[in-house]
Description:
Number of domains: 1
Bound molecules: heme C
Number of helices: 6
Order of helices and strands: HHHHHH
Helix content: 55-70%
CATH superfamily: Cytochrome c-like domain
Amino acid sequence: MKRLAVTLAVLAALAVARAEDGAPLYAQKCAVCHGKDGKGSPVGLKMGAKDLTATKLSEPEIAKVIESGRGKMTAFKGKLTDAQIESLAKYVKAGLK
Ligand code: HEC
């Protein structure tokens, strides 16, 4: 029983760490165009990027845009793992928090 409790605690800690991965990834891969606050960098705005904090897309739709790209946005399939794309979609959906 004790071992089960330890295993669950470890899994919970891992889940939290995974969910938080979105922020550094965003800063690395997305902020160039979308800005640190998601409202769009000068470069991104010129390409037609919209305010990410105001997106109406669902989490799976956001994941799809990240994977396949849209308009002038780069596709990240092959550059990010599925888990990373998922964390980013969660992070964006949560209003970059
Ligand atoms: C090279 C610049 C660039 C980079 C890098 C970039 N984007 Fe984008 N993104 C855009 C542009 C431009 C659009 C608008 C596309 C369109 O609809 O024409 C967009 C659109 C989006 C949308 C759709 C928003 C909506 O409401 O329709 C999401 C979500 C998004 N980007 C997330 C991300 C994430 C997450 C990353 C990092 C993995 C990222 N983008 C990296 C330029 C970029």
